[in-house]
Amino acid sequence: MRRLGSVQRKMPCVFVTEVKEEPSAKREHQPFKVLATETISHKALEADIYSAIPTEKVDGTCCYVTTYKGQPYLWARLDRKPNKLAEKRFKNFLHSKQNSKEFFWNVEEDFKPVPECWIPAKDIEQLNGNPMPDENGHIPGWVPVEKNNKQYCWHSSVVNYEFEIALVLKHHSDDPGLLEISAVPLSDLLEQTLELIGTNINGNPYGLGSKKHPLHLLIPHGAFQIRNLPILKHNDLLSWFEGCREGKIEGIVWHCNDGCLIKVHRHHLGLCWPIPDTYLNSKPVIINMNLDKYEYDFDAKCLFNYFSKIDNQKFGRLKDIVLSV
User: Fold this and answer.
1) Which reactions appear under catalytic activity for this entry (predicted)?
2) Which of 61, 100, 147, 278 is most buried (most C-beta within 10 Å)?
């Protein structure tokens, strides 16, 4: 199977969207909703959406694995955002009647500083060697997750740089109905993007861990392919999300043959998220760490140490894993 696309920028919706002047269910204090119409977008058709691979959109925070200091490293998403003056100028432009004109950014002066180790996301537009902002006025990018950086402590909990491994959740290779948590070499994940999920990420929609014993995991983008998705029509997708067990997910991401990624979120269809019983929590999960070669030389409080103690154990669902590190 071909490697699926990586998430390096904001994904467009599969349908043409429209703005409705009602409070958003997705973002607090946002006075409008962005809803899907019944028209498939030009971008989706251009990317040949009908031959794309549909996958589950997982609710977490985006990460990236690439080289840093000569070894594979986990990187956290950090968008470079405009300073106050530039943001005000950009918002005035968006609300003006002059949207036919192009907004001019001065990248060197209009944006807040970022750490020296920051890198721009791949495939974003460049002008005179400078990465340019997207339609929201942000420059997508990444910063390496250092071991002792408290800002990214939950990212750091799922990697071990001494042994160059990461805690990954995916389907079991021999049983698609079974999930597996394993220690994967970071070198196997190079140039891939993944979703970090868990106790302290996005309100923990999957109910993992607890405040006392938080649990976080990485899921490679495209890991959970969707079988038997209905025809690509607004009402059919709406019925699928509402009525099928497989539809109890945050959304769908289509991986197109040209590398383009197209999405639809439950909120685009006027549906709620998070929901009580997610599809991700409907499958059993097995622990398959295979850490013998590392001689279990891990910090007593780290997740790798905990999972090494319950290796080969099987749980009815993800949220049944109770940590006692």
Assistant:
1) ATP + (ribonucleotide)n-3'-hydroxyl + 5'-phospho-(ribonucleotide)m = (ribonucleotide)n+m + AMP + diphosphate
2) 278
